[in-house]
Backbone:
């Protein structure tokens, strides 16, 4: 958590995601959180997800956490969930159970890290997804 002076920002809250290469995806709040991102990046390199809340006047509190970003080309779903447990694999695309195999890029991103896991890949933009993995 850090504080930043950002008088140019409007509103009371801002969320954004910094992608590899420094591109920012703006969520809720300010149209351009560049001043907030600049402060975060003194301590944390992209990719990360951040949330900022105005503390009063032009002072903002900003919290950020690293995220895993990877590409899943030609994936029609915005959310891909894969669970591997007891030698069985379950795949959900946008919440619907499917008989399809997990996308190759997702398996590669998780492979070797955990024997059994639940993974959720959420589209950020285009073919870029954020990956969250929970070991089981």
Residues:
């Amino acid at each position: 958590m850090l504080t930043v002076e950002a008088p140019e920002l409007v509103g009371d809250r801002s969320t954004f995601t910094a992608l590899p290469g420094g591109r920012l995806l703006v969520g809720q709040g300010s149209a351009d959180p560049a001043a907030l991102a600049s402060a975060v990046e003194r301590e944390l390199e992209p990719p990360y997800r951040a949330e900022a809340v105005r503390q009063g006047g032009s002072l903002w509190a900003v919290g950020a956490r690293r995220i895993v970003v990877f590409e899943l080309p030609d994936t029609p779903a915005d959310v891909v969930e894969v669970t591997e447990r007891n030698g069985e694999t379950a795949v959900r695309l946008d919440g619907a159970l499917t008989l399809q195999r997990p996308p190759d890029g997702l398996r590669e991103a998780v492979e070797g890290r955990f024997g059994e896991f639940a993974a959720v890949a959420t589209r950020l933009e285009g073919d870029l997804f954020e990956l969250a993995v929970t070991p089981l």
In short: Residues 2-66 form one domain. The longest helix spans residues 34-40. DSSP finds two helices and eleven strands in the chain. Helices lie at 34-40, 104-110.
